[in-house]
Amino acid sequence: MEDEPPLVREVFPELVAELVRLLEEEGEHWLAICVWDVRMVGECGCGDGFCQSIRTVDRPQGQPYGPGYRCVPLVPAQGDLILDVVDGRIMYIEILSRPPMRRRGAVAGVADSVGGASGQQLDLPA
Asked: What predicted TM-score, i.e. pTM, was given to this entire model?
């Protein structure tokens, strides 16, 4: 069996807690439950220092989501958090203009921070 990507809540617990709270405030109760179980398939990869976005499913880049797509913008205290959702499934978490997020726990093959304003990768002990 192939290893599954880590749960976002295991890598960025503060982010998921914030997403749950903001989704509840927006009346997005189903998504508040779903965000708890999304997996971190990969980083955006755009290279922009202000972007820390997370891909939660594998899909061809540059392709439209198609029917059932909706954008769910949230109102955090700092920066932007926007979810791409298709038929109730969170496909992408857009994280822009926020302080660098720090990873929790040891995640094999994954750097300890994502993008952020500094654009630096931190090497933290596991």
From this structure: 0.80
Distance in angstroms (rounded) separating the CA atoms of residues 82 and 122: 25
Cα Rg of the chain, angstroms: 14
DSSP codes joined into one string, 28-57: -HHHHHHGGG-B--EE-----TTB--EE-S
Residue 118, Cβ density class (10 Å: 0-12 exposed, 13-18 middle, ≥19 buried): exposed
What are the pLDDT digits (tens) for 22-51?
999 999 999 999 999 999 999 998 999 999
Task: Identify the CA nearest to 101 among candidates 82, 70, 124.
Answer: 124
Count of other CB atoms within 10 angstroms of residue 67? 7
* Token pair listed for 58: 């594998």
Separation of alpha carbons 121 and 66, rounded Å:
34
